Structures
1.
Amino acid sequence: MKKNLFLFFIFVALLIAYPLFFRNPFPRHLLIMIMMYAVMSIGWNIIGGYGGQVSFGNTVFFGVGAYASAVLLTKAGLSPWIGMAAGCVCSLALAVIVGYPCFRLKGHYFAIATIAVGEIMMGLFMVWDFVGGAVGIYLPILPQSFSNFEFHATKLPYYYIMLAIFLLALGVCSLVERSKLGYYLRAIKDDPDGARSVGISIRRYKLYAFSLSALLTSICGTFYAQYVLYIDPGSTFNLMISIQLCIISLIGGLGKLFGPVIGAFVFIPLVELTRVYLGSEGQGIDLMLYSLLMIVVAILRPQGLSGLFARGTR
Amino acid sequence: MSEILRLEGVTKRFGGLSANQDVTFAVDRGEVIGLIGPNGAGKSTLFNCICCFYRATGGRILFRGRDITKEAPETASRMGIGRTFQVVKVFREMSVLENIMIGAFLKWEKTKDANAKAKDVAELFGFSAKLDWKAASLTISEQKRLEVARAFATGSEMLLLDEVMAGLNIQEVRETTDLVRRLRDMGLTLILVEHVMEGIMPVADRVVVLDYGHKIAEGPPKEIVADEKVIKAYLGEKYAKRRAHRPVV
């Protein structure tokens, strides 16, 4: 336990020091993406890994987070930080509205329903002219400052903001894991009837988990909008994002705190590097590489990679 | 003695088939009730109605004077009705201690408290040496005991045990009857559903017999084993007639 904590502090120290050694934009961008996907996968893992309820709709919260802050900034001139909070509120409401009826559905049907929700939101934002429709939103270039959430000279501030969000997500997940909620989710995943027999309301605890999942994803959505400064429905409500979150958690290890982190560190470099080196003529090859990775993991370590690093944990 | 559970004309139909028909009986606090009957008599259905996993089609079920007929199973559990399952439903991937903790969380919200409470319960049920074992790695008999421990940890006033003795060897049956006695001595009310009569007779204060969904007899075990209708239900009409000419053992 102490050894794990020690390793964790070294890990954090390395992350803090990383930009000092890598001064080019790409390595910094790479780690920002790794951490962003790690945060979203940690969110996905709370409901999908611990609770066993596979969701393909988490991209919805990413999109809502991105659009909430972008719309408030362009239409009302509000700081993206306020937008981030607004995005969280919208995502939370959406999680309850979607989750309440959908948690009646068992197993695969829930997953299918969440795909539908994602596609509906994508369609809706495509034709909604007020938020830019299919063209999307170009965020205004403002003087760089923390309150404007825009930095043009260097990616460094983005890096540290993302690092803070990443540590927050790890903290939240660690708390969940050790609390009643975490135990209940694992019980629900293991045997729903057994869980009900000891007074657990399955729907309520899945809603809690789904809401946390939505919050973490929504924060990343706002970050993404401010980082790229351009959003459109195709890049934010993309089903592929949800699938990637699922793949990352699977590769890393379902229902484990560091599972999604390890998954993101393996998977995202693959995504970014194939994009950079293969470019447009490499289209399709990246998918083959993902599949290869999945197959290798499924054969050699079906429980995920995380056990390789932290022995002795569950 | 005060009454804890009352069934009033409980009926459960599955489509055209009625598994329970107009079943009425009451249970006092601290009693051990045996619910028996031949295969397909509707024991498990009635059991599931009482802990709200099934919703009774007709009649009323009152627990501590409150109508629970239409409640959700988790509500029934929160009110103090604990249960086990005929086919064990322990949390297979979790440890013995964690299984019991899941029960304890109902009354002890904090992980530390639930953990401490679960350890106490584990000791009571003889699991102290196996706290870290995965539930799936226990024997069936142990898994059944773990289910009882999990239900007990919720602080239930009444436990419903569904065939805890089925498939156990003689030694294990004896251990289970001891356990039932201990639970009763702690003031719990127990309803035992059993297919086999041997296990239940020495511990039950009263036995309710079901056949084809109807209650055909109710009373102390001694009277029940001599009851004409019960013998007929278990062994057939012919045997009952033959037996009537011989003195009761």
Note: Chain A touches chain B through 19 residues (CB under 8 Å).
2.
Amino acid sequence: MSIAFVRRETLPPLPAPASQAGVYGFFHARFFASPRDIAMSVIGLAALVLIAAPLLRFLVIDAVWTGANRDACVAVPTGACWPFVVAKFNQFIYGFYPHDELWRPNLVFLLGLLLLVPLLIPSMPWKRLNAALFLGIYPVLGFVLLTGGNLDPQRFVLGRFVDLAPYTGDHRLFGFRATFWADYAISALLLTLPIALIARLFGTRFSTSFKAMAAFFIALAIVILPVDADFGLRWVETREWGGLLVTLVVAVTGIVAALPIGIALALGRRSEMRLVRWASIAFIEFWRGVPLITVLFFATYMLPLFLPGGASIERLVRALIGVALFSGAYMAEVVRGGLQAVPKHQYESAAALGLGYWKTMGLIVLPQALTKVIPGIVNNFIGLFKDTTLVQIVAILDLLGQIRSAFSDPNWASPTTLYTGFAFAGLIYFAFCFAMSRYSLFLERRAGSSALRVEGAMR
Amino acid sequence: MTDLPVRREKTRVNWIFHPRVRSVFIQLLLVALVLLVAWFIYRTTSRNIAAQRIPIGFDFFWIESGFSISQALIPFSESNTYARAFLVGLLNTLFVSALGVVFATIIGFLVGIGRLSNNWMISRLCGTYVEVIRNLPLLFQILFWYLAVLAALPVPRQSISLAGDVFINNRGIMMPKPLFGEGIGIVALVLAAGLLLSLIVAVTSRRYRIRTGRRITLWPVYLLLIVPVPLAAFAYLGVSFDIDRPVLKGFNFNGGVRVIPEFLALLIALSTYTAGFIAEIVRAGVLAVPKGQSEAASALGLRRSPLLRLVVVPQALRVIIPPLTSQYLNLIKNSSLAVSIGYPDLVSVFAGTTLNNTGQAIEILGITMLVYLVISLIVSFGMNLYNRRIALKER
């Protein structure tokens, strides 16, 4: 038997069929593959034209760009009234923050940007330092700049039982009160002793607990010092804040405060101690099960009853407490996801090295878990950023609230004012949220590719 | 070679280092701390309440409310109690949530599948929808629909009139209202019985089909049970029937049913907003079904419709249901944003008006939060049951 023909070389590939290749193929596959596709393309195009064309006309083509009051806008009922936004710009961004002091929120914005941008770019060095600055120092600095600081606390712990003023006299230096800081020093010493004694019972050396307590009180002092100091800044009450400033303050405070709360709750939920676990689950599920509005109502109406002198706590601060508890519970679930994603052998290796619970968590597990959940944290932040709009229901005027209140200004009453306001608010919210969601997606892809590599190697 | 002497030394460990002792100690500490905080809150609260002379207890429920509610599914007037107001608010919350869940699911599935379309135009449109909807705050969207769209509709005298005496204007949608005479209750019972019977027949026939592989055509039976039988009952009992049509009188409409714009704005915003999230869930679910599954189904000769219905969708649902549940819960919780536009939901009626009138923040907010917790629990319980039914049964 002989073989008549054996092909020795591969045939050259045929050109793609005409319906797939070239410009025609491109359009054919995407728009006209079947009669149904043609119909859908036409409907889609019609929808696009019906939505996009009037939008473009309203926002750009017919829009009014200059003017001092409503007169310019009343004349053109089909175009946006941008002078309204220009005139109200400060109100939208800062609320009724005093005009001479606007450099303070501006500086806070700028510092935030300078610290945040390198934190978000993965290739930037000094991540730890950067994160510490952003999460630790920046909130204190922002607080001092925005409120004016100089809180002037009167008593620490001892002062609540003994009146120290006769011993120290009424001395002050840069806004620091001698009575308070004497109280602080003595109380710190007095508190350290019994705690060190109890810790000794549990086998901790005196020197270790002294060091830990000293570190705690020094850290606390570092937080109180700038807040107490008198930098000569005018005190600006939070009720004068508003607009985008409040939106950002609520969102950033919410997420920064949520991190420690969330980590503690997530660890609690995975704890082997039953009561700790149940308490964490109850706390998390309670806050996750109720709407944010009821939380804000709780913060506005119930917190003042719960706390001594509660009615004197400012409205914004109360709302911030509510938001922090609420977002802490959501953060806990994000962090828990990260904790569950850390492979078991990491825990086991840590145990094999003789590390205790806190060292295992702090050095091995949490760093890995938190890196894994950064996209989740960003998504959480997007949700919180959108949810901050709810504070206007408890009479705190954020960006949307300020825009809404500006609608009633008779100087700018025109048929297009309302739509212009909505367009401006929409553009700002969309810009923020879209950028953040893209960033989170970018991180997920990055993490996804590396996680895939690790998992592939393990299988 | 001798055995090495094994030195057995009883290591004495201080009992303080025993993990169980530590765990008990820490848990006791936690309990003590919680009790301390609770006691502290109780003390300050009772002092504050006494100082502000706020009444305590649930007696306020039986006081005449003195306000009216713009939309009530059960009759309500100023002379009704706060308890009834609570019920009205709760029903309104459930009503708008239920409708919202239905619409959000429909729109979400359409958009999610549209995003996967080969047609570039459709997939891009659906993608844009998802991006825009998801990146704007819900409150913004509710206010937009309420203030910018529905408030801009013409005044009643220039209503847009649709077929069948339906009018749309800036006071909402006016619709004719069917008026039934006595005996309609029996007809409704007959209809309910028909639906129940159809359900039983459907379940039985499904079991039969699974057991024997034979299919019985049953849709005429369902149709008979649901349409002609109740109609016959209707005719036999001689139930009077009339239509109350909305009629323009002066500046407003009289008669008929009015769907208030607050409800419409909330419903539209809730449905479209949640649909944006559901679309992403559906897309992820469909993408999670391996391509080999649909290829294998085509190889078996299944056409597009059974391929989707029998192979792709059941597998996609397994991925879709758990996140879908949390979206439903979000929708229910988000319906509380009604308070911003004055739709009389639970928060608006109870935690808003009733709280302002009585000042009993603790009781009212406690009940409100409890209600939402219970609703969440019930919904997630139901969805978990469904999820268990469709979950992968490994044999």
Note: The CA atoms of residues 124 and 227 of chain A lie 31 Å apart.
